[in-house]
Amino acid sequence: MKLKVAIIDMNNGQANQGMRGIKEILSLYQQNNDVEFSLDIFDLRQKEEIPGLEYNIYFSTGGPGSPLEGTGERWENLFFDFLEQIKIYNEENDQEKKYLFLICHSFQLACVKFGLGNVTQRKSNAFGIFPINLTEEGKQDSIFGALTDPFFSVDSRDWQVIEPNAAAFEGFGAKILALEKERENVDLERCIMAIRFTNEIVGTQFHPEADPVGMKMYLLKDEKKNTIIENHGEEKYHDMLESLDDPARIRFTQTILLPNFLNEAVHSQLEAIL
Description:
This protein is α/β, with parallel strands linked by helices. The protein has helices at about 20-30, 45, 75-90, 105-115, 135-140, 165-170, 210-220, 220-230, 235-245, 250-274, and strands at about 1-10, 35-45, 55-60, 100-105, 120-135, 150-160, 175-180, 190-195, 200-205. A 9-stranded mixed beta sheet has the order 2-1-3-4-9-8-7-5-6, with helices on both faces. Helix 1 packs across helix 10 (about 250-274) and helix 8 packs across helix 9.
């Protein structure tokens, strides 16, 4: 079985480990399952490239900067139109569906587009490997239900989605699957960490594609190391490095979430063919 996969690159030309992580998950999935992926990458923020509806599975990456800085720009309008097209296509087609996974920056933009919450700047940067709590909906979800509660993943953001719009969630049929860890001594609302927008569209604030090898390469760079120590302290930096060796943390999340999403997408395509 051969399926067409598109990745929307939101990195705006900046080096990152996320794209490599998604590619590696796709490659490993092909090896372990009777499926072949053809892959195309679309540089949206730099080149205003956007995929059409000829693909079966889509990923849209994280990226730098504010999710509000592109307001009114052509690349953002292209992305919002793309989201609308995927949603409408799935509503109008009972069998063949288009599957989309949104990560970090893309997740925030989708929340802006569909009015699901308030996108705000954090008081301080969040960067590290953090516990994330499943909601009751998340525990029952076909993708997230296989995770532990809490589970661990890489979180890297200056912005967040808070204050969910209950009416918009109900009207859209969306469900909150995960929330930021509870901080008993911090009087701030927990941000939304994952949403199932529709049966076929899922998004996370965190980085489920992150793997220990790529993360360690990132953390060992002098510039990043110095920034983390300056902002969070040397103890926090070494804790992050040690956490990468724990198989129950980001390695576990990486082997569960996106492969489960691919399972749903691939099985759906197979059912449509049969």
